[in-house]
Design goal:
It contains 23 helices and five strands. It is mostly helical. Strand 4 and strand 5 (about 515-520) form a beta hairpin. Residues about 1-10 have low confidence and may be disordered.
C-alpha cells in the first residue's frame, strides 16, 4: 500500500485508523497464541507474588523485598484485583491495550517529529517490533513494557508546539517530567529519559530560558517521587525502600558481568534481535549513521534517545532481551523515518517500489511466522517456569495445605509460589540474596566462582526472623532437581538452615523435588 501524505488526496483520519487497526491486528495475532500458560517470565511471578502481599495489606520492602520501585507492584495489584489474583493471562490481556496505547503515542511523537507518513508506519511498526521475539522476554508483563507508556507520553509532551506561550511550555514540561518520574517508579532505568529530554531542551534553547525549562522538567520528575517517598515514610517502609532499591541495586550492578563475560551475552542478544526484526534494526542503524553525517530537525532527540537507552541496558553487563524493549521506540522512529525517505526517492520507479515493499514485507512476515512458530507449543512456553514437574509439586502443595498456609521455596521460587497459590513464609520470594547467586552472572551457575563474598548476612537474619513469625507448612528444595539452575546451593551447604529443617520437618519427595513437611 502506498502511504500518501495528508492533504495530497488521502483522508488522514482513515489512514490513521487503518494504521491503528494494523497495530491491533499484529498484537492479537502475535501475542494471543502465547497467552495460554500461567507464567511466561519469572519476573511476572515475582511481581504477582509481591503484589499479593499488598492485596493482603502488607507493606512493600518489609513484608516483601525487591530492588525495584513501588509503582510496578501497585500496577500488578490493581490488574490482578480486576482479573484474579493468580490470573497472569488475564493481566496480559489488559496489557494488550497498554501496548496498543504505547504504539499510538509513539505515532503521535513521530507525527510531530517526522511527519504523517512516518507516524503511520511507526504505530504498527512498534506493535510488531515489541511482539516478535521470545515470549519469555517480549510478551510477558514486564516492567519495560509497563513503563513504556508513561515514558512515551512524557516524551511527547516535551516536544515543542508552535505558538506555545512560555507559561504553556512550562506546564507541558512539568507534566512531561511527572510522567517520566512515574515511569521511573515502575523501573529505575526509565529515569534516563529525564537526562535525554533535559539535553534536548538545552539544545533547543539557551540562557535563562533553557534553565527555566529544565527546572520545570526536573520539578515534574521529582513530584511523583516525593509523593512515593512520603507514602513509604507514612507506612514505615522508607528505610527499607532505600536499602533494597538503592543499596542492593548498587550491589547488583557492581557484581554484574565483566566485559569479558558480558560481550558474548551482548553478541547473543544482538543476533536474536536482528533475527526478530531485521528491517527495524538495519534501517535504524543506517539512519543513525546518516544523522551523524547530516543532522536534521529530528536527529538530536532521536540520537540522544537511542544513545540514552543503551546506558541502562548495559549496566551490569547482563543484556537480558527484555532490557532492549527500552531501545525499540527510538529504533522504530529512526527506521520509519528512513523508510519514508526511501519510498519518496523511488517515486519515479514503480517496479523498484514494488520490490522494496515486498522485501520489507518479507523481512517482517518471515521472522513473525518462522520465529514465533515454536512458541505455539505450550510446553515450550512453560520452560523453565512451569514445566510438568513444577506443576506437579505445586499441585501437591495446593492439595496438602490450606489456602492461607505459607510455604518456603528454597531457590528462585516465585514461580512455584504462584503455581501453588500460596504466599511465602518469608519476605524473600527468592533466596538469591542469601546465597550470593547474583542474577544473570556466573555467580549463579559456575562452580568455579565463589559465592561467599556475595552473600548478604542481613538477609539471613531477616530470613530466620520471618521463619519464626510464619513457620512454613512445607519447604520445597529446588537445588536437587536443578530448578532454575540452583544446583550449587543445597540446604546442606547452610548448617543453620539444615538444622532448622531436620528439627521441624520430615522429608519426602514429589516430582524430583525434595519436600519437607512440618512434623505433627
Amino acid at each position: 500500500m502506498q502511504l500518501t501524505a495528508a492533504g495530497s488526496g488521502s483522508d488522514p483520519k482513515r489512514l490513521r485508523l487503518l494504521s491503528a487497526l494494523l497495530a491491533a491486528a499484529a498484537l492479537l495475532a502475535l501475542r494471543l497464541p502465547t497467552n495460554v500458560v500461567p507464567i511466561l517470565n519469572v519476573d511476572e511471578a515475582d511481581f504477582a507474588v509481591e503484589s499479593g502481599v499488598l492485596l493482603d495489606g502488607g507493606r512493600p520492602y518489609i513484608e516483601f523485598v525487591e530492588k525495584k520501585p513501588p509503582l510496578i507492584y501497585l500496577l500488578y495489584a490493581g490488574g490482578l484485583a480486576l482479573v484474579g489474583r493468580y490470573n497472569l493471562p488475564g493481566l496480559r490481556l489488559l496489557m494488550l491495550a497498554w501496548v496498543a496505547a504505547s504504539a499510538w503515542v509513539l505515532g503521535a511523537i513521530a507525527r510531530r517529529l517526522l511527519g504523517e507518513r512516518a507516524a503511520l508506519l511507526a504505530v504498527p511498526g512498534y506493535a510488531v517490533a515489541v511482539s516478535i521475539g521470545p515470549p519469555l522476554d517480549f510478551h510477558a508483563a514486564n516492567a519495560e513494557t509497563l513503563f513504556a507508556l508513561p515514558l512515551l507520553l512524557g516524551t511527547w509532551l516535551c516536544l515543542p508546539v508552535d505558538g506555545d506561550t512560555p507559561r504553556a511550555q512550562r506546564r507541558r514540561l512539568l507534566a512531561s517530567g511527572a510522567l517520566i518520574g512515574s515511569a521511573s517508579l515502575i523501573k529505575q532505568q526509565a529515569g534516563i529519559q529525564l537526562l535525554v529530554l533535559a539535553a534536548f531542551v538545552c539544545m533547543r534553547a539557551s540562557g535563562p530560558g533553557a534553565a527555566r525549562r529544565v527546572a520545570s522538567l526536573v520539578a515534574g520528575f521529582a513530584a511523583p517521587w516525593l509523593l512515593a517517598i512520603a507514602t513509604l515514610a507514612r507506612v514505615g517502609a522508607l528505610a527499607e525502600f532505600y536499602y533494597w532499591t538503592v543499596t542492593i541495586n548498587r550491589y547488583y550492578v557492581a557484581n554484574g558481568n565483566s566485559l569479558r563475560d558480558g560481550l558474548p551475552l551482548l553478541a547473543g542478544a544482538t543476533v536474536v534481535l536482528a533475527k526478530c526484526s531485521p528491517a527495524v534494526w538495519v534501517l535504524a542503524i543506517a539512519q543513525l549513521v546518516r544523522y551523524a553525517v547530516r543532522p536534521r530537525r529530528a536527529s538530536a532527540l532521536l540520537c540522544l534517545w537511542f544513545a540514552g537507552a543503551l546506558i541502562p541496558i548495559s549496566l551490569g553487563g547482563r543484556y537480558f532481551l527484555h532490557y532492549f524493549l527500552q531501545l525499540l521506540p527510538p529504533a522504530v522512529l529512526l527506521a520509519s523515518d528512513l523508510a519514508v525517505e526511501i519510498w519518496d526517492r523511488l517515486h519515479a520507479h514503480r517496479l523498484a517500489r514494488v520490490a522494496v515493499g515486498a522485501a520489507f514485507g518479507l523481512s517482517v512476515a518471515v521472522p513473525a511466522v518462522r520465529g514465533m512458530a515454536p512458541y505455539r507449543d505450550r510446553e515450550v512456553l512453560s520452560i523453565p517456569h512451569a514445566m510438568p514437574s513444577a506443576r506437579e509439586v505445586a499441585r501437591y502443595v495446593r492439595e496438602h495445605t490450606s489456602p492461607d498456609a505459607r510455604v518456603l521455596v528454597w531457590g528462585y521460587g516465585s514461580a512455584l509460589y504462584f503455581l501453588a497459590e500460596r504466599q511465602p513464609a518469608t519476605r524473600f520470594p527468592y533466596v538469591t540474596y542469601l546465597v550470593g547467586a547474583v542474577e544473570g552472572t556466573s555467580a549463579w551457575w559456575s562452580p568455579f566462582r565463589p559465592n561467599e563474598g556475595l552473600e548478604i548476612p542481613r538477609a539471613w537474619d531477616l530470613f530466620f526472623e520471618d521463619l519464626e513469625r510464619h513457620p512454613p507448612a512445607m519447604v520445597i528444595d529446588t537445588s536437587a532437581p536443578g530448578y532454575f539452575a540452583f544446583t550449587r546451593f543445597p540446604p546442606s551447604r547452610y548448617p543453620r538452615l539444615q538444622s532448622f529443617l531436620i528439627a521441624n520437618y520430615q522429608r519426602t519427595e514429589v516430582a524430583g523435588f525434595p519436600l519437607w513437611e512440618r512434623k505433627q
